[in-house]
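Hey,
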Amino acid sequence: MSTDHPSATPDPAPSRPPAAAASRVGFVSLGCPKALVDSERILTQLRAEGYQTVSSYDAADVVVVNTCGFIDAAVEESLDAIGEAMAENGKVVVTGCLGTGPKSQVVRDRFPDLLSISGPQDFASVMNAVHQAAPPSHDPFLDLLPPQGVKLTPRHYAYLKISEGCNHHCSFCIIPSMRGKLRSRPVGEVLTEAEKLVKAGVQELLVISQDTSAYGADLKYAPDQWRDQTYETRLLDLCRGLGELGAWVRLHYVYPYPHVDRVIPLMAEGRILPYLDIPFQHASPTVLKAMKRPAAAENTLERLAAWRAICPDLTVRSTFIVGFPGETDADFEQLLDWLDAAQLDRVGCFKYSPVDGAAANALPGAVPEAVKEERHRRFMEKQAAISAAKLQQKIGRTIEVLVDEVDEDGVIARSWADAPEIDGHVYVEGVLRPLPGQRIRVEVTDADAYDLYARLAHD
């Protein structure tokens, strides 16, 4: 049927032209949690600008590699990753710790055709290079950025970086030369980010920096606002604020300065997790002096005893170096004796290896590799026995755990004593099928040197 007058039916709304295909970015993230947070910042900006991240080199218009340059093994891993990206794609942007200082020239010499190379936190350089290689095509109607930004961790936990850089000059470390001096974030900014993460479903906040105990010192502990209250930019007030969010809060890289004593009661009250990651590195005063470690003069054994008196469930994890230049048999025996006295819960140990640019390279008294190997073995045997005994004491207890994975064999979870990827697990048997990120109560039924075994509690 036809008519001579316009149809009474309204014309359809003009259609929007289809959005251009999003530029695609491949991303390789290496290194420590602080580097991972940098990767999240870059990925968040990429997503905000309409880029799509892809998991294969051949699907990417450009590849970003966030490198680590702390120890020789990390340098080689980063160089291998850059080489693979260059071979498989050819358009590669390098950032991170390997992009600054003397090591950056190694990268430039080996890969002269890189699109860009920049140091840590130089987000503008990364984005400029990506823009040149693959201009963004953003559709504001369709491209939505999650409020917590793009995260590389599972949805239920996230790293919360509170500062950059470090003011110490440990002789084995080159972090200050790569990441600069301490630069703390205002406490209101950190607490606002943490609140967004928790609202987005994060159940565990892992507080990280190079020296968490020094947080705010560079800002002279300036006051800031959050939720209409005043907080000082210092560790204690940060923990007070984080304790209001209802999530697990775990502190990493804490030096045992006296002011840390004031945080322990918050752990005893359940405001933050009773967990401290303290990089003691050694126990011999002679070796600590050669390492130029901060807080080397503190009586750490007395401090540990005082903390445990306030918070009996306190878990302390640490890392140590054996075979440091000049370490004698007596120094090593002193370290073993200190381990016996300290009774730490979680411990990692590294055999000393030189790092390009570190002051320790010039120290006399290099320890033979065979001696390093023997000391490492003895150290780990002693600590395994300590850890096993402490875990045995948890059998029969009912504890809260955070679920990480669920599969056909059961549930893999973690307790307050277990940081992700570096500590142990709690394996829960039974027919329960909680979701990752749920907190459940379990009864501990068994233990080995590193892990707990449990069943669902019925209390």
